[in-house]
Q: What sequence folds into this?
């Protein structure tokens, strides 16, 4: 029994070894394979990162961009992951949105007055003066759900850029006018089984590869006439 157990551990280790090796190889993938800007003013940013991906997987990287800086974000990936990578740029912002608020409460169950054929007024268990609609308590409680629409403030993801609308470009440059937190969402087309939030099944090494995100920054250049005068 013990020998059989050891064989299972050994077999698992043999299967996972290429994955661990791949992961270590991916650590600095962006430094070697993502093309840096030809503009020497751009400097590598410490928020750059690389990771092991499988086909069909989506993952996110959160970065902070600062006021008065220009940024360049470029992506690169192993050839066995395909010929294109999908990436989107989001900002999480606070917005007022309409939301239906449900309130649950227990209330006495009511039924129509039988003695008044469904019409009349109720006084405890008695039904009298058959004018309008009458109800009596059954002695049971029922759950009552009331709904109210309110304006509430929530954090929502606002799409800033989608490279699928830009011929699947692998780089973007932009200036920042106010410090903000952005989310880079990277998706690898395919069906490798490594989707966000799902249980990852064993994946063939041919369906895995490295993806690098190179972030560069520089101080936004001053344009136009500046500092002239008498």
A:
């Amino acid at each position: 029994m013990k020998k059989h157990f050891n064989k299972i551990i050994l077999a698992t280790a043999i299967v996972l070894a290429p994955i661990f090796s791949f992961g270590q190889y991916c650590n600095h993938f962006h430094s070697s394979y993502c093309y840096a800007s030809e503009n020497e003013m751009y400097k590598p940013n410490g928020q750059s990162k690389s990771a092991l991906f499988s086909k069909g997987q989506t993952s996110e990287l959160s970065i902070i961009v600062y006021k008065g800086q220009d940024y360049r974000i470029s992506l690169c990936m192993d050839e066995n992951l395909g010929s294109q990578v999908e990436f989107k740029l989001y900002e999480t912002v606070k917005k007022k949105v309409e939301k239906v608020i449900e309130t649950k409460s227990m209330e006495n169950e009511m039924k129509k007055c039988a003695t008044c054929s469904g019409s009349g007024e109720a006084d405890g268990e008695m039904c009298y003066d058959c004018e309008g609609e009458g109800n009596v308590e059954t002695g049971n409680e029922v759950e009552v759900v009331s709904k109210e629409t309110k304006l509430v403030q929530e954090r929502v993801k606002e799409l800033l850029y989608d490279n699928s609308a830009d011929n699947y470009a692998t780089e973007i440059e932009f200036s920042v006018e106010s410090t903000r937190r952005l989310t880079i969402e990277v998706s690898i087309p395919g069906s490798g089984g490594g989707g966000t939030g799902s249980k990852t099944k064993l994946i063939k090494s041919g369906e895995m590869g490295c993806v690098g995100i190179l972030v560069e920054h520089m101080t936004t250049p001053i344009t136009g006439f500046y500092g002239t005068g008498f």
Remarks:
- Residues 2-85+170-219 form one domain.
- The mean pLDDT is 79.
- The longest helix spans residues 2-26.
- The chain is about 15% helix and 50% strand.
